[in-house]
Amino acid sequence: MKIQDPSLNWLNEFSLNRQKLITPQIYQFLQSAIVSVHLIPGAGLKEKEIIERFGVSRTPIREAMLRLEDEGLIEIYPQSGTYVSKIKIEAVRESQFIREAMECAVVRHAAKNKNDELLKTLTRKLDGYQDAVNTGDQELMFLMDEEFHRTLADFCFKPRLWRITNLAKSHMDRVRHLSLTIPERQPKVLEEHKIIFRKIAASEETGAERAMRDHLNYFIHDLKRIQSEKPEYFTN
């Protein structure tokens, strides 16, 4: 099938095992496409085309979409259509608030209770991010950024804490993906991670928390810049 809507061209990049597609998998697939901005804010989603592309019935598609609607990632208008939600500033700031509260507590715990295994794992994540910067691989940069923070969360409470954090930050993650298109931001994330790492390694709880807070708060600067460059992606 040829996808007619340009907003759905990204579907052709994936090879799917249609026999195994169920609602959670479809949800995860669409959620990832929205958060990574493969589906841009405001893009239309045509249910019929998605059903035909996935090769499944309407039921799991609708169930997945209802979940996405509940999370504020899509908007469904029965007589009009389904659209990827624009990035809501209030939701982004809420995500930022929750993430900062949780991750500052996590990094204090890491600085107080660190061990050699944690430091080795964090070092590997830093090296992975450096490799991504060297090759200009933005998707890998995002992944290694996530892995750095997930390592700290899992060191504190595995695996629930990261699941909770990840759910809370889906709105801000769209802005984070967009911010990686800013060339000067790419190495800056790495430098901020290195500062956090050094504070943890030195068992400086207060310093680690301050470094994490500075790292997360820079997001507001990124948000303002992206909003000014792509105002059509945002809504209050």
Describe what this molecule looks like in 3D.
The protein is mainly α and 236 residues long. It folds into two domains: 6-85, Arc Repressor Mutant, subunit A, CATH 1.10.10.10; 88-235, GntR ligand-binding domain-like (Four Helix Bundle (Hemerythrin (Met), subunit A), Up-down Bundle). It is built from ten helices and five strands. The strands form two sheets. A three-stranded antiparallel beta sheet has the order 1-3-2. Helix 1 (23-35) packs across helix 3 (58-70), helix 5 (116-135) packs antiparallel against helix 6 (138-156) and helix 5 (116-135) runs antiparallel to helix 9 (185-201). The longest helix has 25 residues, at 89-113. It starts with 22 loop residues before the first helix and ends with a strand. The model is unreliable at 1-7 and 13-19 (pLDDT under 50).
